[in-house]
MFS transporter (Streptomyces alanosinicus), 405 residues
Amino acid sequence: MTFNSSDTCATTHEKPATPASGGVLLLVGIALTAANLRPATTSVAALLATARHALGASTTWVSLITAMPTLCFGTAAIAAPWMARRIGIHRAVWSGLTLLTLSLVGRLIDGAWSLFADVVLSCAAIAVCNVLIPVVVKQAFLTKVGQVAGIYSATMAAGGAAGSAASPWLQSAFGSWRLALAAWAVLSLGAWLVWASCGPALAVPRASNGPDTAGRRRSLFRSGLAWILTGYFAAQTVVAYVIMGWLPRMFSDAGMSTGQAGLILGAVLLLNIPMSLLLPPAAARSPSQSAWAVGLACASLAGSVGLLTAPVAGAWIWALLLSIGITSFPLALTLVPLRTVDPVDTARLSTMMQSTGYLLATVGPLLFGLLRQATGTWHLSLIALLVAVVLQTVLGAPAGRPRTV
């Protein structure tokens, strides 16, 4: 998807902002929005067994609802730049938060397919914010991309962990799994209110009037660097979703208790929060991000080899390495504004990377599970994971070189 000469992320009612004009209110809005990008899905995962039993849902329903997040993230991401062109970037993000809040409240409605529809709507809303927040960071915090990306990534990780950890507690407190799922609308409403107040502080300008302006912008599908970045994002997304989706099961099958396996996954997610805060600004200050990309991939590689050879004996070591490795996600998000010259290209690259990456991430964890089911062991599945990590390593080096699409 590309922008033509009339494309803009602002409407005629918005005054062009100067670079690096973001203030405290906008930063709070970005952080609160990021905190809402995972609880809508991780809360469902945490209470899925309870919901399935209460609704009498089928195995097919469970398979579909677990595949929806990445599938919707990939497909709905394509609509984000169109929304930004039509109504402005501020209103597009605000509309996404509106839909997210309403879909969370909708989880109070009875019915398995009603919950399924709410999950689809939530993920579509999240996809819009996924694509457009990096554009806001590029425009409003031009000289502080790394620091703001770190805050954005850390609050996203914290929100995801909170959705998973707090939802069972909310169910116990409210005596209802529906209320526990709908309660996250309070957090979404908070972001909605702050974002509604950010309008005057956020206006993304039209494309520059230089030689590479809108009408002459080449398609990113003809850019080798754009494809390298897309491949890198896709590979690290597959690795991260396999780890988050299957790590407890792998440890359980190796003889570890279910409680301890879940504790290790929780540790992986918790350790990822401070690393997500610290890594983006450090990487952004570096002349090149290649060493960061390759180093993080090597951590995932070592952790994956450990899972293949001695899963239980070195479980906590592998967990630490994998937690370091999946910090590739905030690095990939940081690369989006670093590899583009203006907010228009940031939106285009963000759309290309996330739509393709999340669609591939839908296939990766599914293939991982199918290989386990077909062979009866995790060996072939882990070899497939190693292939994805090697691809991430190979693409990480050129993705990190200082240039633009």
